[in-house]
Amino acid sequence: MASNTTDLKIAVEEVASWGRRLSITVPAERVQRTRGRVADRVAKGMRLPGFRKGKLPTQVIEKRFGSEIDQETIDRLVQEAYREALETEGITPINQGRVGDVQYDKDSDLVFRVELEVRPEFELARLNGFTASRPPADVGEEEVDSVLERLRDERGEWVPLEEGARPDNGDQALVKITALGEDDEANEEPRTYRIVLGEDQAIADVEAAILTLAEGESGDFTVSFPDDFPDEERRGQQQKLHIGVSETRKKVLPELNDELAQGIGDFESVEKLRERILKDLEDEAQDRAEANVRNQLVEQILAANSFDPAPSMIETYLDYMTGDGQARGEDAPERTPQEEQRLAQLREGLRPQAESGLKRMLVLEKIAEREGLRASQDEIDERVEEIATRNDRSASEVWIQLEKSGQLEVLEREITEEKVFEFLKSQNTVA
Predict the structure, then answer these.
(1) Which CATH class is domain 9-117?
(2) Alpha helix (H) ranges present in 323-431?
(3) For the chain, what are the domain ranges?
(4) What's the average model confidence in pLDDT over 21-25?
(5) Is the Cβ–Cβ distance between 219 and 242 less than 8 Å?
(6) Would you say 215 and 247 are in contact if contact means Cβ atoms under 8 Å apart?
(7) Which has the closest alpha carbon to 352: 364, 360, 341, 362?
(8) Span 262-280, pLDDT tens digits
(9) Mean pLDDT in the chain?
(10) CA-CA distance, 157 to 113, in Å (whole number)?
(11) pLDDT tens-digit readout, 191-202
(12) What CA–CA distance (Å, rounded) separates 137 from 222?
């Protein structure tokens, strides 16, 4: 597409839903004007023996500084023409354009290309006719019991084991571990650990050794490091260790009674606590069921309206998922080759999830824009009021806190997403 509002010749090629290639031609007259201004600036600032400052002959300037003038001319024209082409064609890039195929002669047109990425342009040809199945959201008494046991465990008290008793899984041991050399002499300082046995807080061979020792006992053990040990160099290796147990404890849980319920919160009895747990679990189950329905609808919409996110958007999303964007700041410590490799593997493992998440976000934004479903200011105010009421605070306090923490935009997206899915559910079948 060429523009008539500029002396540039601009051709835009859509190489992908997210990719554009600009072919830009700057006319020779503009090239010569720009080069002349650059040459004048160079001449005014240069002083050579035998010539007054600013009075260098043209032939001298060209001989001594011609290549520098050409390069600055190209740089200026490319930057100016690229910005002008974007404005003229109404293109908003999402990455730094890649300039290539530059053809320059001081007496001819300047021609170059720019490869850039934009938010993918796509149409939603189909949003209805889909079916989603809502999974059951029933909550049983055993789930309530499980939460109660967890609450009891969180409030358990660690008490010493009986004298001479060996610990068991679930017990806690304070141990001192010393690595031994081939001569059974310590080759490093001992290290002290507090370990809850049976929770994979130590490698299996170490836990097995501790289970054989009562408080005050110690012994030498040969352990093998598993294949998934964090230190890759030690995987599969054996090491002789001296392990001593200086303290053993077991956890005693409180009785499940009204006193416990009152200590947990504003509950007058265990029955009231059970009711609250049941209500919370039911709400969570309903939320999971709703999320399942939403995912089914989005997956079907994506299958019916195929498009690809821009690569730079995927990389930015991966930065967010891995925290890599912040880790690459100026003050960030330099990574080791092993850390770089692990990060690269992590990013590749998360790439499908990043692509899926981006597609979901772009589709929901498209629907919200097309159907006029973005959260209004009144809806945001109403939601802030609800949050304030639940937390016994003023709406202005909550608003300021949300704005400072950046959560106000999150709240707006949540409301918009709720409206989008209510619309989608009205257009499709949810069984």
Answers:
(1) alpha beta
(2) 324-327, 337-371, 377-390, 395-405, 407-427
(3) 9-117, 123-155+265-306, 157-252, 372-431
(4) 97
(5) yes
(6) yes
(7) 360
(8) 999 989 999 999 999 999 9
(9) 90
(10) 71
(11) 999 999 999 999
(12) 50
